């Protein structure tokens, strides 16, 4: 039973396109009693995304909609309808590989976060680890930020960094940064949702 005065959990929706390891870390963290959110929907643009299978196996409702053969606006309207139907209040992107339209971002203004595998504002976009290595950087990391119309450009909510080692490749870096992502994302999403207006 909820304690007197304790607020209802915030309803989080997660968008994925692939394996969904960050989604899984968010779902696992949500099972703690004191976690401020519950994951009410995992949605994907890829019906065969392995992350959807994981979500179903862990009792999380899922929704898949391929954007193929329809205008982007219609595809996004279907995603939007599924999120609203599930009562979603805020969205976490977790390896969602599609650009959201300005219209979608505006409809969820300040209610979408993303995790990006670089220390933003460095290395927006793809191939972040290879680019960090090519620049001779000493450290790599990940960033959780608010999603705006500018790719990987919204307010930074939290970051984690690791030291780059001489023998690192883009693959070893990705692996070690991913461990940090799995710690960072649930913590920052919880802090963010704790102060998000109802
Ligand atoms: C992660 O590295 C994340 O930072 C980036 O895409 C990758 C998704 O991995 N946005 P997963 O699907 O969460 O395992």
Low-confidence stretches: none
SSE string, helices as H and strands as E: EHEHEHEHEHEEH
The CATH architecture category equals 3-Layer(aba) Sandwich
| CATH fold-level label | Rossmann fold
Quick structural overview:
The chain is of the alpha/beta class. The chain is 36% helix and 22% strand. The protein binds 5-O-phosphono-beta-D-ribofuranosylamine (GRF).
Task: Characterize the structure shown.
- With 198 residues, the protein is α/β, with parallel strands linked by helices.
- The chain contains six helices and seven strands, in the order E-H-E-H-E-H-E-H-E-H-E-E-H.
- The protein has helices spanning 21-30, 50-57, 72-85, 102-107, 128-134, 170-195, and strands at 10-16, 37-44, 62-64, 90-93, 112-116, 139-146, 156-163.
- Helix 1 links the parallel strand 1 (10-16) and strand 2 (37-44).
- The radius of gyration is 17 Å and the shape is globular.
- The protein starts with 9 loop residues before the first strand and ends with a helix.
- Bound molecules: 5-O-phosphono-beta-D-ribofuranosylamine (GRF).
- 5-O-phosphono-beta-D-ribofuranosylamine (GRF) is lined by residues 16, 18-22, 94-95, 115-117, 142, 178, 181.
